[in-house]
Amino acid sequence: MLGFLKEPVVVTAKINVNLVALTVMGLISRLWGLCYPRAVVFDEVYYGQFVSLYMKRIFFVDDSGPPFGHMLLALGGYLGGFDGNFLWNRIGAEYSMNVPVWSLRLLPALAGALCVPLAYQILVELHFSHCAALGAALLILLENSLITQSRFMLLESILIFFILLAVLSYLKFYNLQKHSAFSGSWWFWLLLTGVACSCAVGVKYMGLFTYMLLLATAGLHFWHMIGDQNLSNVSLLCHFLARGLALIIIPMGLYLSFFYVHLALLYRSGPHDQIMTSAFQASLEGGLARITQGQPLEVAYGSQITLRNVLGKPMQCWLHSHTNTYPIRYENGRGSSHQQQVTCYPFKDVNNWWIVKDPGMQQLVVSNPPRPVRHGHIVQLVHGITTRYLNTHDVAAPLSPHSQEVSCYIDYNISMPAQNLWRVEIVNRESDTDVWKTILSEVRFVHVNTSAVLKASGVIGASLPEWGYRQLEVVGEKLSKGYHQSMVWNVEEHRYGKSQEQKEREVELHSPTQMDISKNLSFMAKFTELQWKILTLKNEDTEHKYSSSALDWITMDTNIAYWLHPTSGAQIHLLGNVATWASANAAALLYLCLSLWYLLRRRRRIYDIPEDAWQLWMSAGGICGGGWAVNYLPFFLMEKTLFLYHYLPAVTFQILLIPVVLQHVSDHLCRSVLLKSMFSALIVAWFSSVYFVYCTFSPVSYGQPALSLTELRALRWKDTWNTFIRKQ
């Protein structure tokens, strides 16, 4: 029974020494001196704030993209024991001792290091020689811009890692297709493709470009499979479903999970939650939740409420009135009603309170039992402090002359009767009998007499002049066929009024609510709102010293100064390896010219290269050239501030194209032994120049050693490169 013990247990393994060596070199190049400088470097000032908020569980919104990349950076902080206490207010600020610099920068550095062996494996899976694959990996290893970007708390190296992982996984899956379909390894690489694509998109939306490229490639490959008569209809259906599951369904589910974890971690109110709806704010611990906790759910006749405009940008504001009246005549000579001003005020204030009144009754308190207001009911809105009724009439608004003025009615005993009846329309109702609910219901107020809709026009326009205290204009929108969030309101604070006397009511309006009720949003409701805010919330694009255009990137006519030592000549710049970038441009141009030449010749039935070499040439171009195109060309359509680091995913694919072109030239264009020898010598000389440029610029890639004034002047190879020399 124990006979197997008579022989030794032998385990054999194949180790790719090239892969191991490249991984080790990648780790050394990215991890060496990782804590230097112990100061805030460029966009660490931006991402560090989010890491601190994660550590403190405070909610935030970043309009630059999804939360997965931020969570990975925060994971580094968590593993290093970071408590979040650091003021990220200045590039170059020295880190305090509680900031685990090495840990915060570790994950981006590891991602950057692993891009080196990934580049090697991609070329191998594209069926190029190990020599070409080794060349691709070394070019990534010696690329100064990728080294700089991966050594700090930034997201581009993580994005590039997941992009390359997705490409490699798909190539491995595709190469297993003919002989090992539906095997364990086939499923593993297919699923990993979807996971890596989702992670890339979860880090930055730029990952969508490569995701779309791989989806298009998978679609093309499946189209070819349809023409394979050896595959049955059932087999084709299984292949289609497998790809749909792995490349669409699972990535979508994983993308949702990023937001689920993000929202689960950030449960406390913070400075960013004011741009969210009242319902979202109320779901966070602290902030609005402390105010709204215990409020009645159903709005009834006699309820005291504050009305927040749903649009919430460029700032949140509440329906507001005060004792001041509109001027008799505006600056442009137009007249007004001289009624009490109604505005949208961007701060909490006792003058934001209104009372929901039944037009058929005089009481301003909630009856027992309360009579809830439903969709379609007619109400009057009474300003809590001044007790005047919300009113609109056929008088032009101060800033929007095509809309009606909204006021609180003052009886001047002139021929201008009160028109203060409003119909409540619940926009997000489930039925026409829905009850108006606190926070949850989004409502429009339609004026009964004129059909105008109450609108916070100042939210999307200008604020009132000095006579209106620069508050935001509110109007009656007469042409309300379209739907706009500036016409929609929700009850944020709410209490059941108990005091009929005005003095007692004023005291009541200043008091907190006491009733108890819970208003939790579902995850999908939170996700939908947060995703919409990320996509639509845009910071004002301002000109930056180091911003650039997409055209500047190809020739590297721009750079970014990431960090300057306050006293010495030590500094860090985002600069690419000039030799590599120029070679990548030449390789892309040569690939395009050769492809057009081959296509023209093939059209004439002239085949310059074998069919298998042609297929290899096209597939490599589709991945490497296509990867460059989809990650670069969209920036010409973007209206945003652009920086050189936006080009890094594209240039990574372009660098992979260099060994593809070199091997093709060597194998198919150098037809004699002498030409091959000369071309090999040329490649050695060229690669030596790449290494020379890497060594020359590594002091400004790593920030050390410090350079003298003469050495810094010598590094300014282009006049367009910014501020190498510090003004003494």
UniProtKB/TrEMBL annotation:
Its EC number is 2.4.1.109. Its main location: endoplasmic reticulum. Residues 296-359, 370-427 form the MIR domain. GO terms for cellular component: endoplasmic reticulum membrane. Keywords: Endoplasmic reticulum, Glycosyltransferase, Membrane, Repeat, Transferase, Transmembrane, Transmembrane helix. The keyword Transport does not apply. The keyword Lyase does not apply. It catalyses: a di-trans,poly-cis-dolichyl beta-D-mannosyl phosphate + L-seryl-[protein] = 3-O-(alpha-D-mannosyl)-L-seryl-[protein] + a di-trans,poly-cis-dolichyl phosphate + H(+); a di-trans,poly-cis-dolichyl beta-D-mannosyl phosphate + L-threonyl-[protein] = 3-O-(alpha-D-mannosyl)-L-threonyl-[protein] + a di-trans,poly-cis-dolichyl phosphate + H(+). It is found in: Endoplasmic reticulum membrane. The chain crosses the membrane at residues 68-88, 100-120, 126-142, 154-174, 186-203, 208-226, 246-267, 578-600, 612-630, 642-662, 674-694. It holds the Pfam family PMT. GO terms for molecular function: dolichyl-phosphate-mannose-protein mannosyltransferase activity. Belongs to the glycosyltransferase 39 family. This is Protein O-mannosyl-transferase 1. It comes from Urocynchramus pylzowi. The gene is Pomt1.
